[in-house]
Amino acid sequence: MYPFLEEVPDPQRTTWNPCENNTSMKKKEFQERLSCMAKKYGLYLVANLGTFEPCDPKREWKCPKDGRYQYNTNVAFDPTGRLVARYRKYHTFFSERVTFDTPTTVDYSFFDTPFGRFGTFVCFDVLFREPAVTLIETWRVDSIAFSTAWINVLPIFDAVPFHAAFATALNVNFLSANLHYLPMNITGSGIYEPKGTLVYRSDRKSTTGKLLTASVHDKAPIVVRHDVKFSRDVSWDKRYFRSTLFGDTYHFVTLASNKSVAAVCNKHVCCHLDYEFADTKPGEKYALGAFDGLHTLDGVYYIQVCSVLKCAGASREGCGAPVKMADTHFRWLNLTGNFSSPYVSPSLVTSDVNQAPGQWEYDGRSLVSGRTKAGLLWATLMARVYNRDNIVNIQPRPEREVRSDTSGVMSVMVAHCERCTVWLFAFCNAVALLASGGLLFVFGA
C-alpha cells in the first residue's frame, strides 16, 4: 500500500499549492491532480486519499515499526489550487485498523468560503461526538463535506436516510459522497439540508457513478428541538415482545387495527404513535419498536430509538429484519419519543428503499406524515446519547500491521475506484466539489 500513499502537509503550518509548486514534495501526484482540477474549474474541492507521515520508532513510542503513520485522509483545495484543509480520520472502522493509524489528537478541519464555513470528516466519524459535534457547535461550521464507503444495513442504517437525518439532527448542510460498489452493498450519496433532502441517488442496480448537483442555502433553515413529556393518561402497552434489529433488542408492539394509537417503552425511552392505515396488504405486518441502550455491533455507541416499521413476514422474529419492498400505505402517522438527548435524527423510507421528500416533516418534536406515494418501510426517530458512549470498557485497538507488499487491500480499493471516479486513484471514497455561488456537487452514489 505504501507506494500509493502521499505525504500531505498541515495547511495551518505550511502554504501548499501542488499545482503551482510540484517540486517541493515527493509523492504528490494525487494532490497535484486535485489541486490543478480545483484551479482549472474554479472550485473548492474535497477528496479522500491515503496519506503517510514519517516518524521515528526510537523516539515516539506510538510510531509503527516501519517508521511511518498511515492515515485515511480528506484534503480540501480552494479555487486557486491551495490546500486549505487536511483531516485525518479519527474513528477508523474495524477492517481499516490493520492498515491505518489514528492521530493522537482530533483534527478539527474546516475552511471558509464565500458561501459558508465547511468542515470535513470521514465515514465512521459521523456516529461520534468528535469531531462532528465540536466542529458544528464550537467552530460554527454550517456545512459538512463527507466522504464515505458506507455499507447499507436495513432497516434504519441505510446511507441516504441516515445521512439526511444527521443534517436535521445537527442543523447543517451535509454533502455525502459515498463509494458505489454494489458487491459490498455500498451505495447512496446526496445533498441534504436540515429541512430535508435536496437530491440523492441510491442506485442498487447500475454499476456507474453519477454527479449530483443542488443549490443550497448558505445559512440553512434550522429545526428547533423540543423536549417531550407525555401526559399521565397515555396507555403504555406492557404486552410487548422482543425482537432484534441490527444486534439490538427492541421492545415491539404490533399495529393491529386500521386506526389507533400505539405506545411502548424500553428502559427510559417511551414511543408514542398515532396512525391510520389507508390500506393494508395481506401478509404485511407493522410494529412500533423502542430501544434504549449501548449499540455494540460494528461499533460501540449509545442510541435511543423509536421506529414504526414493516416486519419481514408474519412472525414476531421478522420485526427488525431487513425488508426492501412494501405495499401498505398509511393515511397519516405521528411518531414521538421522550429522548434524553437533543441530537435526534428523523427518517422516513418507502418501498424499494426510497426517500419521500415533501411527504413528511419533523418539527423538532414529532415525525408527521400524510399518505406517502409508496408503501412504508420505516419511520424512525433516533437519538444519539454521546455522553453514555463510554459506559463499558472498550478493548484497545490492535497495532497496525507492517506491510511490505503492494497488493491485498490496495488491489481491492483500485477495483472500487474503477466504479466511482477517475479523479481519485487510491482510496477513492468520494469527491465533493463546491462551486462559488452555492451550487454544490457530489460524486459517488
What would you note in describing this structure?
This protein has 445 residues and is mainly β. The chain has two domains: 262 residues, 4-Layer Sandwich (Nitrilase/N-carbamoyl-D-aminoacid amidohydrolase), CATH 3.60.110; 139 residues, no CATH class. Helices cover 9% and strands 36% of the residues. It has four helices and 24 strands. The strands form four sheets. Strands 11-12-15-16-22-18-19 form a seven-stranded antiparallel sheet. The chain has a six-stranded antiparallel sheet with strand order 3-2-1-23-24-10, with helices on one face. Strands 4-5-6-7-8-9 form a six-stranded mixed sheet. Strand 6, helix 3 and strand 7 form a beta-alpha-beta unit. The longest helix has 13 residues. The protein is elongated, with a radius of gyration of 22 Å. About 7% of the residues have low confidence. Keywords: Hydrolase, Membrane, Transmembrane, Transmembrane helix. It comes from Ridgeia piscesae. Pfam families: CN_hydrolase (PF00795), Vanin_C (PF19018). This is CN hydrolase domain-containing protein. InterPro entries: Biotinidase/VNN, C-N_Hydrolase, C-N_Hydrolase_sf, Vanin_C.
Largest beta sheet: what is the strand line-up?
Answer: 11-12-15-16-22-18-19
- What ranges have pLDDT less than 50 throughout 5 or more consecutive residues? 393-397, 403-430
Shape: elongated
How would you spell out the order of helices and strands? HEEEEEHEHEEEEEEEEEEEEEEEEHEE
**Helicity range of the residues?**
under 10%
SS elements, strand count: 24
Number of spatially distinct domains: 2
What structural class is derived from the secondary structure elements? mainly beta
Main sheet characteristics:
7 strands, antiparallel
CATH superfamily of the largest domain: Carbon-nitrogen hydrolase
Alpha carbon gyration radius: 22 Å
Q: Do you know the CATH topology of the largest domain? A: Nitrilase/N-carbamoyl-D-aminoacid amidohydrolase
User: Residue-averaged pLDDT, rounded?
Assistant: 86
% residues in beta strands: 35-45%
Provide the CATH top-level class of the largest domain.
Alpha Beta
What's the CATH architecture of the largest domain?
4-Layer Sandwich
Q: Ends: how far apart?
A: 25 Å
Protein name: CN hydrolase domain-containing protein
GO molecular function, one term: hydrolase activity
Family: Belongs to the carbon-nitrogen hydrolase superfamily. BTD/VNN family.
Keywords: Hydrolase, Membrane, Transmembrane, Transmembrane helix
